[in-house]
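Troubleshooting: if your tokenizer reports a length mismatch, compare against these two reference records.
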Amino acid sequence: MNAHATIQGPPLHELSITRTIDAPPETVYRVWTQRLGEWWAPRPYATPVVELDLRPGGRGLMVMEAPDGTRFPNEGVFLDIVPNRQIVFTNAFTAGWVPQDPFMVVIITFEPEGSGTRYTARVRHWSEEALRRHEAMGFQEGWSIVAGQLAELAENERIAASA
């Protein structure tokens, strides 16, 4: 008798948004990494604190600020960086691999598409409950808004470079 075991990975509990941006991946990546404070939070929220150590194990800290001054820190570490193509980070750890209550792993890709970029943000959660909580926080609307803000900056940068 032959026993066959099928090993199946855990469910991804994934939310995602995709947007085509009329700028090359290099421009979108540069705006993502160098101008994050300008687009990370949906307006009228702001991002007054941005600290990015763009290397595997490097710290990422983004502090969003509400119009009333309430601050929302988002700290984690980068897991993978492929310049102009991919950024992967998680909030399961802080710098130095110090564990914290995990919520998500984020996979950002910058894929060439014609003369532009297919920008995709995939957010994987540890549980269905965390995914549902992120949906209830307004994931689709919020992440779509900030992708639009990123696109606006990248497209304006592309136009300025070609002028």
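Reference record two:
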Amino acid sequence: MSRPRIADAACVLGCLALGALLLRFGDAGWARPGADPALSWPADAVVGAVGSGLVWYRRSHPLIVALLLLPAGAVAGSVTPALAVSVFAVAVRCRARTAILVALADILSVILYFLLQTDPRHPLAVDLVVRGAIVAGALGWGLFAGAQRRLVASLRDRAARLEAEQQLRVEQARLTERTRIAREMHDVLAHRLSLVSLHAGALEVRTDASPDEVASAAGVIRSNAHEALGELRTVIGVLRDVSPFRPVEAPQPTLGDVPALIAESGASYECALDGSGAPDATIGRTVYRLIQEGLTNARKHAAGTPVRVVVAGAPGIGIRVEVRNPLTASAAVPGYGLIGLAERVELVGGRLEHGSSEGMFRLSAWLPWTASERG
């Protein structure tokens, strides 16, 4: 048996036990010789038992149970515990106004109960106070429990909504970064494929070209086709914004644009890249975007603090990029830009780390740089 059903059974048994106690000391159980109570004690016991049984359905139909018990409370004293439980159920699950009206009706039914007795054992005031105290206690407890239940439900709904909104913002940040990467890839692929088309057209026109010229053009075609395939592998699966209203963007940044970016921001820069070669354009753009995001975060969340940028690496080892700046008292946690940046780094096979320690915020990433890549 489930826990709610065990509670229902215990509630019914409790109503039966308390109803039997009230029956023992009520008008039906203590009728003096010659007195004619409204209900004999067996009839009162049956009404109390049926009323207690109705409590089983108080969760699904609280108002109906309360209205069915209302006339029973006007003729039988043993049904009072069931009345209190029904008032509690109405207060928990219905509006406060409805619960108060039901409670008042239950209390006022004592007057009819008193009038039906030919020789009442207790004065009307006693019956009103007893039932009023029981019903009022059930009403107050039920209103409190209902308010607490609604508060918990609203907090759960709010938490679920905030979690959904958080997930939506994260997904939007990832999608925005993927769209941005797709636009960059479009420009680069267009450049490389135009070179392939240009040299292929030259071979088509120059039928008298020497073997060395043909070999040179074929090498350019092969190299650019290889680079284009590498770029295409990066962009596969990335969504692209094809809106015809998108404005024309500036040429995509490269690794060579990093010094100008850092000089503009006033940060200190340390570069320790192997001079024998350079990473491909995708890695170079990713390095640029990493530094750009790090400088932007430092400017937004720790304005006026010194920023240090370090770029080091070599073919076969990879590139390590680090942007470090002190934390200030008013520094905020960087937002969703880092989520998109992590998406960009993962797409090229790298790793991104960020966090604060010892009063410094550190943005660090490792990017692959294969030994075959040359500028």
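Descriptive notes for reference record two:
- Strands lie at 268-273, 308-314, 318-326, 351-357, 360-367.
- Residues 237-249 have pLDDT under 50 and may be disordered.
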